[in-house]
Write a sequence for this structure.
């Protein structure tokens, strides 16, 4: 059995590195962007298309999957892979963040979190142990511990409290993982990652990074970033945290999907990222290009017979004009979102290929600088 | 050059027949169901999937395409085929029916129809000549004349008036088609079909069928059916009209898509049908099976690990369970509509294969009887 994580090459001029994750459903090259399939489907995409692009690690969400379809259904299919007919790898977020984004009347206490379903108002409780168990039912190849996120503006006392609970829950999650075979007759099926918190306080970030790094996790996520803070704070706290998270394990920054944030993370030696942005923007007509984000609804595309992106091999770029894409979005046709989602995921997949090549050739920092200069020269994130 | 329409086999016991339409973008086997792609896209489907199922004749709509993307855009691409990257055949409805369904403040007069766009309220006018010209820009393989539909409940005087205008417009459409090369340097690219009207008056139906049949059209549509009348009236007026429409030409009944109506039409020697129902129902979770319409949202599907339809080869049936489809619809995931649309179009394509085989073997009437007995035994159209 190969090591779970193999570092292949470290860029000579920064912490960026390439590597491989060896998972139950195939090897994943890192740094890697992971498409989000919250409910067991990447929105607007056939799984076969996601696979054809090259992805073999996508996200699911424990909070959403627990509520719908629920564990009874997932057990019937022995997990999400068979239920959703996806034979690549699945990483599931624990649902801690989603409870705060989605549910009502949540209450944190030492034992766990009580919350109401955003769907029907029904009352539920997540404990660190239960979240490990649910991800065992899901059959997650990478599972995340239950944690508490502290957005910017939370005071130091509350941030410490949230961090301490997060650390205690991390220990309890490991204990549950390790006792699962004894309890249920089946060892935990995935790799359980810890999550660093600590809010926007340097010393707490460092403390959390060191604490989680010291625990028996095969990989570490940096949580609580890209949650409303300024870009300067994102860069600052990412660097502080990444510096302290063990470099020997795969490192994951949760919930980032704009190219500037991804490249910033890569230069800090981050290996995994995920975000709904690629497919959400796509459904609203905004697509990634090297020249910035492009809003296909804008009238300038109406008579444009060229593709979104000359070099792209996705269905939209190889078969259709910007004019046709514009038309589909003006008519609210599903095919617009389907094609644009495929484009954005293809774009990010290919961007990560370029990123990995640049790292292998010890030129990631100049790649990043050149890429962002072009990206921002003609629009950047402003959806021209 | 082959004849446009080749009749292959007439069932020994009814007017049902098989045939071939020879069109610019390939041969179409009849009787044939045509998927609807109003705006130049079959909703929720890649064109490649529509083609892979076996379809090579789909619908577009002149009213919708004239408003969006508009003739300027279509001219840039020399028509809808290139614009939408569909290399099969396209039939366009003239837009007469759609003006009455969609637009505001329409006014019919001898010259044409004035109407307001349902999108932005802008004022427009369709004449029979203009509708021929727009379909020339679209590049329709089969084009329809502008007509006026008389729903049930319209009095005899008004029905006669609408029919007389429809007949006059049919003549003017033919004249326009025939003078197009002289006017524009390019002959009409498609086959122009006439449309029978006459409302729900036997003698008017017969008069209209004879009048339109006598004109120089390569094919005839029966309009003004399935517009709100009872099923008994549909069957009655279909039979009366079909009896009088020339049997030598391809015959098309517009806007029918439930299996009972399709089979009724086939037994009357109808060759072509179209309807949005297959894809619209699919987007709302209802799928076709031999045992009636099935509503995937119903709780009975939640733990059902079988496919929608054992015998079906579509992506939904070959890869997914009813439980997963149920989950997708409960979560309002796009993939639900995408997969169900593919299923319904696959189902209707395969149904027409079975219909053609039954006709070739002179057993269409017993096929129809057996099929409907099973279809209605366990739900029929009631979405069980």
């Amino acid at each position: 059995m190969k090591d779970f994580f193999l570092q292949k090459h470290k860029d000579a001029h920064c912490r960026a590195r390439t590597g491989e994750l060896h998972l139950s459903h195939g090897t994943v090259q890192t740094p890697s962007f992971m498409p989000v399939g919250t409910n067991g489907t990447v929105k607007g995409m056939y799984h076969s298309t996601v696979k054809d692009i090259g992805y073999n690690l996508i996200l699911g969400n424990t909070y959403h999957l627990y509520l719908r379809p629920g564990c009874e259904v997932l057990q019937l299919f022995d997990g999400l892979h068979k239920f959703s007919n996806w034979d690549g790898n699945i990483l599931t977020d624990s649902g801690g963040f989603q409870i705060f984004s989605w549910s009502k009347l949540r209450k944190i206490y030492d034992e766990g979190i009580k919350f109401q379903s955003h769907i029907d108002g029904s009352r539920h409780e997540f404990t660190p142990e239960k979240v490990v168990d649910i991800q065992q039912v899901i059959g997650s190849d990478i599972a995340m511990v239950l944690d508490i996120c502290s957005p910017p503006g939370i005071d130091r006392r509350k941030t410490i409290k949230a961090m301490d609970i997060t650390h205690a829950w991390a220990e309890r999650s490991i204990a549950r993982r390790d006792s699962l075979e004894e309890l249920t007759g089946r060892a935990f099926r995935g790799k359980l990652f810890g999550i660093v918190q600590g809010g926007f306080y340097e010393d707490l970030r460092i403390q959390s990074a060191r604490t989680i790094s010291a625990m028996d996790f095969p990989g570490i996520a940096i949580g609580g970033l890209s949650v409303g803070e300024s870009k300067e704070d994102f860069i600052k706290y990412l660097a502080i945290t990444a510096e302290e998270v063990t470099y020997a394990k795969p490192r994951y920054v949760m919930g980032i999907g704009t190219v500037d944030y991804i490249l910033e993370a890569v230069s800090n030696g981050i290996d995994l990222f995920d975000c709904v942005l690629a497919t959400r923007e796509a459904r609203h007509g905004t697509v990634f290009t090297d020249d910035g984000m492009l809003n296909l609804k804008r009238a300038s595309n109406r008579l444009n017979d060229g593709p979104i992106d000359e070099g792209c091999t996705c269905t939209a770029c190889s078969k259709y004009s910007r004019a046709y894409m514009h038309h589909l979005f003006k008519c609210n046709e599903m095919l617009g979102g389907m094609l644009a989602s495929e484009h954005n995921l293809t774009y990010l997949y290919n961007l990560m290929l370029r990123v990995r090549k640049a790292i292998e050739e010890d030129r990631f920092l100049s790649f990043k600088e050149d890429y962002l200069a072009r990206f921002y020269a003609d629009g950047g994130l402003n959806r021209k």
